[in-house]
């Protein structure tokens, strides 16, 4: 599904965010991306939907050479991905309902379909009762769940979640992670960049660990900390 | 046809319009004011042009026959002029009347009782349709038989024609400048309203909206801004026209102000067109600016 | 005095200015264009006013003496007029010259050889400083002895005075409208630039900045926008003035165009003032709008 | 320090965010505010610096009747508080350094003082090397730490932190919480709204629990979940 080959990314201001990163993620995988703050997790995700272009290296997503993709083809790529942005990126002038519906409208979906899918997605994240509110009228966690609903609504083949539970309480977090698991079981590839140790340690999935822009470990059933479950660190 | 989509799109445009009411009002106000300026200028120009041609149309050629001119010669001139398409009116003034006229014109200063003989010849007054043809018509008359002197206010005609030409050229330049100015101001305004929503545009892109999809509502918004502004402008201009015109006629009763020189519906159409067109172009370009990611 | 603070503040203003370069350019451009319009209008108005008074100044009163007027009476009129402060020039035209003039004026149509006697009286040509005093001076002359007819283009004077009055009033209204228009357009533009940064303003408030503290840089920015726009406008106007003026003089050599009627430095000062003032007021008000939280 | 008496808050859209809440927080206290997403934590904090006004009830902060405070006096109030906003609220057109310095400038601090304190605050959150960058060039966690530095720089008497570690990795989180503790030990009152179970459970401080806009429990040495340590919930 995703194939990243010796990708480096140097931002215009000279920061080397990614340094010769190579990574393969298969169809239907569920991958955690962990690492310190500012280590390049978001940058890596951004490359996949071409918000940024790599300084060097090759990126293939679902058979598409993203690094070479022409500008006119970018919308089509993005419509087949679901992205939960770290800063939500909700449209302030649209209601919750409209924000979620927007992701479907851009795909040219029929309005009947929209009327059916949007309430379903809002229901999944527990926001049906806030559908007519604007993002500015929501709590942090509600905004985050709106962003998650928007990423889900199109049933994307690939779901990229950047710190999707940073503003959610543990029970909400559990619900959302279970939701992601269910989606993953239906065949969607899921990549989650997260700092939530409890989530990573409980779920025991593939963990890709970044450090200073480099992938340092890639474990099949990993913990948040290298080889250690949560309890151990806490007691240490 | 997915009517839901159409309904959604229109709803979208309307929502954007009302949710940014303050910004839209500012944009519409600016468009209105710019178009009012443009319209007022076009109107004044048309009125002045009408006034100018009125003055020029009053210019006449005085044709004096020689003292020995025959009636046949006078008739020949009359029929020639009658067949000349450039000529508007011809009026014959016998020498007697000419003297009375001269007397009246000099306000009785000339003491006609002192005259033993009438020093004036017969005369014909000729008016043409187009003041520019005065010199040619005069030259043609001069070549005919029995004609003494052919007089017209040569310098006046020349100068008025010259002035008219210069003013016409200046007028065209000013119109061009005005259109440009209106265009720049309106497009600057709409560009700023788009700029204020640059974040929204970039988010839409990240969600996978095509350039066209993002542009469409903005363009409709630009169109609405332009049309609404122009409509307000037209209303204000029409109001001013019907309020001020009678006052102007009253203040300057002797000026042949001719309101009909301005073709109302055409002007209204032009102004609406200018407003809407600039609105569309401006939002098209401004959105494009923020799409380059 | 904490120079660090001053340096910081100026740096702040400069940074805002350069970091929003596109937006500032748009605002400055709009200000410049508006001020160019305003300046061009003021300039044209001043020139036309000069032209109008030139035409009026050429109006003369023709004073015809009676045939039996004595030299003493003629001298009396001359000295009276010489002491009248309203009178500019006085020219005596003996009847003989008058006939030659008449002949010349009618282009030789009047056959003077047919005249046994000169039908014209002696005449005096009087010009005044202020065209408005023509009727009064004429009336005063009429009351003197030995005067036959006192003639001046009455309707022309009346109409020109009337027209001048109306145009002056229209001009004032148009200036007021123009100032208002310039003000609205400029303030709308600056309002939109502030609107684009409404989020910044609300954050500043949440961090504890006072209204004044938030306003200050915006106001300086408005001032800079206004002054920069006006400066560009002044440069363009000055360029146009020195490029187009000779062309106009060449095109209309007989028109007494008088460039000096426009006081350059004063106009420049006024335009800069208008631009800067509106910039300051506009940003003051617009920021205030977003401070109401 | 803080005294909230029967405060209710109904937003213009009709949402009842707080329902007859009463709470006393003493000088030098360290208080966790916990509760589900959308339960009114941020709203409660917002009342303290008067971003919102209560529909009814009395609020006193440091002897000031905040609910009655005149508009012109609000800046003075806010300058004596440090607030870490849930959505950071950084000035996009200012660099990290300028963002932090701004909080001092508004207090009328001398520029020498600013030159001394800003680097110190940035150092505390580990962002000295990013001081010349703009928020848009920072990772999520770096933005969050900038917001924390800005809240700290004035040495406020009261520090309000709304989900201050949502975008931070566990080690960063630990550092920041230790920083907050140190500040608290110097006498600053600290209120932290958080979803981070690990943090709350490890620190064992006063925990105020909100539910549907009401305070349901207020424990002196509480856990994130009522009476339960983290391990117990995880195993349950
Ligand atoms: N737009 C940008 N321009 C310049 N530098 C950037 C930009 N975005 C991120 N960086 C820098 O690149 C590095 C990696 O950032 P990135 O956002 O990928 O980190 P991250 O792993 O997502 O961190 P976090 O967990 O805090 O979100 C950081 O040092 C950051 O300062
Ligand atoms: N500005 C607002 N206008 C209207 N309703 C609002 C506004 N802000 C918040 N709300 C509503 O008030 C309730 C409480 O919101 P608040 O932000 O206080 O929750 P919270 O406890 O901080 O949640 P989270 O943990 O998700 O940040 C929510 O239901 C929210 O939808
Ligand atoms: Mg990140
Ligand atoms: Mg909150």
Write a short abstract of this structure.
With 236 residues, chain A is of the alpha/beta class.
How is this structure best described in words?
The complex is a heterotetramer, with two copies of chain A (236 residues) and two copies of chain B (293 residues). Chain A is of the alpha/beta class and 236 residues long. Chain A has one domain: P-loop containing nucleotide triphosphate hydrolases (Rossmann fold, 3-Layer(aba) Sandwich). Chain A contains eight helices and ten strands. In chain A, strands 6-7-8-3-9-10 form a six-stranded mixed beta sheet, with helices on both faces. In chain A, α3 packs parallel to α5 (140-152). Chain B is an alpha+beta fold and 293 residues long. Chain B is 71% helix and 8% strand. Chain B contains nine helices and four strands, in the order ααβαβαβαβαααα. In chain B, α1 crosses α8 (211-251), α2 (21-57) crosses α8 and α2 packs antiparallel against α9 (264-291). Chain B is elongated. Chains in contact: A-B, A-D, B-C, C-D. One magnesium ion binds at residues 41-42, 86, 162 of chain A.
Keywords summarizing the entry:
heterotetramer, A: Rossmann fold, six-stranded mixed β-sheet, four-stranded antiparallel β-sheet, globular, disordered C terminus, B: alpha+beta, Alpha-Beta Plaits, 71% helix, elongated, binds adenosine-5'-triphosphate, binds magnesium ion
- Main sheet specs of chain B: 4 strands, antiparallel
Largest sheet of chain A: 6 strands, mixed
User: Mind telling me the CATH superfamily name of chain A?
Assistant: P-loop containing nucleotide triphosphate hydrolases
- Strand share of the residues of chain A? 15-25%
Taken together, the total number of domains of chain A comes to 1
Q: Which assembly state applies to the chains in this document? A: heterotetramer
Which class of secondary structure composition applies to the elements of chain A? alpha/beta
Query: What is the CATH first-level class name of chain A?
Result: Alpha Beta
């Amino acid at each position: 599904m995703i194939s990243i080959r010796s990708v480096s990314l140097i931002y215009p201001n000279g920061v080397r965010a990614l340094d010769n990163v190579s990574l393969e993620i298969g169809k239907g995988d569920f991958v955690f991306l962990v690492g310190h703050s500012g280590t390049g997790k978001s940058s890596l995700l951004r490359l996949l939907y071409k918000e940024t272009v790599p300084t060097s290296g090759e990126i293939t997503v679902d058979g598409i050479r993203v690094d070479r993709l022409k500008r006119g083809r970018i919308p089509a790529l993005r419509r087949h991905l679901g992205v939960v942005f770290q800063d939500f990126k909700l449209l302030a002038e649209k209601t919750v309902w409209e924000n979620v519906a927007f992701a479907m409208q851009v795909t040219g979906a029929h309005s009947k379909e929209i009327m059916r899918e949007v309430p379903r997605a809002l229901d999944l994240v527990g926001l049906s009762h806030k559908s007519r509110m604007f993002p500015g009228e929501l709590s942090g966690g509600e905004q985050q769940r709106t962003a998650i609903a928007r990423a889900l609504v199109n049933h994307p083949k690939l779901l990229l979640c950047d710190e999707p539970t940073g503003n959610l309480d543990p029970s909400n977090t559990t619900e959302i992670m279970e939701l992601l698991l269910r989606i993953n079981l239906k065949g969607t590839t899921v990549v989650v960049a997260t700092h939530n140790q409890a989530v990573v340690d409980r779920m025991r999935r593939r963990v890709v660990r970044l450090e200073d822009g480099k992938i340092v470990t890639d474990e099949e059933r990993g913990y948040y900390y290298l080889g250690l479950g949560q309890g151990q660190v806490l007691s240490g | 046809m997915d009517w839901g989509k159409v309904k959604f799109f229109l709803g979208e445009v309307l929502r954007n319009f009302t949710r940014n009411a303050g910004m839209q009002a500012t944009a519409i106000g600016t468009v209105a004011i710019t178009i009012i300026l443009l319209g007022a200028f076009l109107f004044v120009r048309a009125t002045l042009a009408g006034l100018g041609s009125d003055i020029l149309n009053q210019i006449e050629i005085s044709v004096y026959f020689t003292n020995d001119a025959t009636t046949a010669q006078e008739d020949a001139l009359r029929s020639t002029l009658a067949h000349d398409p450039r000529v508007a009116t011809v009026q014959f003034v016998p020498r007697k009347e000419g003297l009375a006229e001269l007397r009246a014109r000099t306000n009785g200063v000339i003491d006609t009782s002192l005259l033993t003989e009438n020093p004036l010849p017969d005369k014909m007054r000729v008016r043409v349709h187009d003041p520019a043809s005065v010199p040619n018509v005069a030259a043609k008359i001069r070549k005919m038989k029995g004609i003494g002197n052919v007089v017209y206010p040569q310098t006046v005609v020349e100068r008025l024609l010259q002035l008219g030409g210069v003013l016409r050229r200046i007028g065209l330049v000013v119109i061009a400048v005005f259109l440009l100015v209106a265009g720049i101001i309106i497009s600057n305004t709409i560009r700023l309203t788009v700029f204020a929503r640059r974040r929204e545009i970039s988010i839409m892109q990240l969600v996978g909206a095509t350039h066209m999809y993002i542009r469409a509502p903005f363009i409709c918004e630009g169109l609405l801004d332009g049309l609404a502004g122009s409509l307000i402008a037209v209303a204000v201009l029409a109001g001013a026209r019907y309020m001020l015109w009678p006052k102007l006629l009253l203040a300057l009763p002797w000026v042949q102000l001719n309101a009909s020189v301005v073709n109302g519906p055409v002007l209204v159409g032009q102004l609406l067109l200018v407003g809407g067109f600039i609105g569309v172009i401006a939002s098209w370009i401004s959105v494009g600016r923020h799409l380059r990611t």
